[in-house]
Design a protein that fits this description.
The chain has a 5-stranded parallel sheet, with helices on both faces. The chain has 140 residues and is an alpha/beta fold. Helix 2 runs parallel beside helix 3. It has a single domain, classed as 3-Layer(aba) Sandwich (Rossmann fold), CATH 3.40.50.2300. The chain is built from 5 helices and 5 strands. Keywords: Kinase, Phosphoprotein, Transferase. This is Chemosensory pili system protein ChpA (Sensor histidine kinase/response regulator).
Length: 140
C-alpha cells in the first residue's frame, strides 16, 4: 500500500490542481482545507498509513504552515515525514523559516503541474538515495 501525500491548502483550486496532478503521477493524495482540521485528524487519530509527504501552504487562516509543521514535528510518528512548503511569497525569510523547520523543498505560487511532479519525484528520489546510502553495509 502506497503512503499518501497530504496536501494542506485553503484554496480549493490549488488543492484540486495538486490532487489531480499528483494522482495522475501515481501518488495517493489526501487533502485538507486548513491546518486545524488536518491536525485534528492527524494528531488525534491513529495515522495509518503514515503519509509519505506533507505539502503545506504557508498562508493559511487560523494556523499557518509553519505552525502546522511545528505540531507535526512533535508527534514522533510524523516527525520524519518530509515537508514541502508552498507560498505566494518567495522571500528569504519564508525560505529560511521553512528550512529551519526541516523543509525538504519550497515552491512559489504560481507553479506548473510539471514543476510540482518534478519536485515531488526528485524529493522522493533524494530520500530513497539517502536511505540506500545510510542503510548500506559499513565498510572498514
Amino acid at each position: 500500500m502506497q503512503r499518501p501525500i497530504v496536501v494542506i491548502d485553503d484554496s480549493p483550486t490549488i488543492r484540486k490542481i495538486l490532487e489531480v496532478t499528483l494522482r495522475r503521477a501515481g501518488y495517493p493524495v489526501t487533502t485538507f482545507p486548513d491546518g486545524v482540521l488536518a491536525l485534528k485528524t492527524l494528531l488525534n487519530e491513529p495515522v495509518e498509513p503514515i503519509p509519505s509527504l506533507f505539502i503545506l501552504d504557508i498562508d493559511l487562516p487560523q494556523m499557518n504552515g509553519f505552525e502546522i509543521a511545528r505540531y507535526l514535528k512533535k508527534k514522533p510518528v510524523l516527525s520524519e515525514v518530509p515537508l514541502l512548503f508552498i507560498s505566494r511569497h518567495c522571500g528569504v525569510v519564508q525560505r529560511l523559516k521553512a528550512r529551519l523547520l526541516g523543509a525538504h523543498s519550497f515552491l512559489t505560487k504560481p507553479f506548473t503541474t510539471t514543476c510540482i511532479t518534478a519536485t515531488v519525484s526528485t524529493l522522493f528520489q533524494e530520500i530513497h538515495n539517502d536511505e540506500q546510502t545510510n542503510s548500506g553495509p559499513i565498510v572498514h
